[in-house]
Design brief:
Layout: H1 2-24, E1 29-30, E2 33-34, E3 41-51, E4 55-66, H2 69-89, E5 97-111, E6 116-132, E7 147-151, H3 156-181, E8 184-196, E9 201-204, E10 221-234
Antiparallel strand pairs: 1-2, 3-10, 4-6, 4-7, 5-6, 7-9, 8-10
Length: 235
């Protein structure tokens, strides 16, 4: 009987402890703001900057098929050396040339007599990405490639400009809302930024039957970011 009373007493004390702790619990925070926060003026500002790309990234590759792996590799190496030589001769730095893909695959065909696939050779593929910092040099012989896409080498300065525009827009919106609501705008209590990677401008280039100059126009791209700001309501 005493044991039963002891168990009941312990369970009662545990229940009181849980109730006490629940009453003292604080709201959960996320990103520096209370999830339950309802006060303030919440606004979003967007900043956009038009940018002329200063880099042309080109993807080009070679493919060699021979009866043996060694022969296919040797042929592929010979042709790729020619490609690398053409790139460096056009002013592309070695540090701006990077291997994207390299593979060796068996080439097979179906044998009706043996009722199975048989190996007839090996195919070596090698694809590199070259970064051309002088876009006007992306024409000419370099047009015999897979694709071109344009980008910006250092977008940090454009991010700063877009960030300033986004913050100005957010503040202007918050001031208008405060004025319409008949309240005074306080200081920001929360700021969050979302940066959007600019879409790359891509172009597919067909292989030319003979070297000939090809005009390359990078056009413009847009760098954009959003800023969410929560302003306090001054009292």
């Amino acid at each position: 009987m005493k044991d039963k009373c002891l168990v009941v007493s312990v369970m009662f004390m545990l229940a009181l402890t849980v109730i006490f702790l629940s009453g003292c619990a604080q709201p959960v925070t996320l990103g520096g703001i209370l999830q339950s926060q309802q006060e303030g003026i919440w606004v979003t500002g967007t900043g956009k900057v038009a940018v002329v790309p200063d880099i042309a990234n080109i993807s080009l590759g070679i493919e060699s098929q021979e009866a043996s792996v060694a022969a296919a590799q040797a042929k592929a190496s010979e042709v790729m050396n020619q490609v690398m030589g053409a790139l460096t001769a056009s002013g592309v730095a070695k540090k701006d040339i990077q291997t994207q893909h390299f593979s060796i695959q068996q080439v097979t065909r179906w044998d009706d007599e043996k009722k199975q696939q048989i190996v007839i050779g090996y195919r070596v593929s090698n694809i590199v990405m070259a970064k051309i910092r002088e876009i006007d040099k992306a024409g000419g012989d370099l047009t015999r490639i897979n694709s071109i896409y344009f980008s910006v080498d250092d977008p940090s300065a454009y991010h700063e400009e877009a960030r300033k525009k986004a913050m100005e827009q957010a503040e202007a919106t918050a001031k208008q809302l405060a004025n319409l609501g008949g309240v005074d705008l306080g200081k920001p209590t929360y700021i969050s930024e979302s940066t959007f990677a600019p879409p790359t401008i891509r172009a597919t280039v067909e292989a030319a039957p003979a070297p000939m100059p090809t005009p390359i126009s990078p056009g413009e791209m847009e760098i954009s970011l959003n800023i969410q700001v929560i302003y306090a309501i001054a009292k």
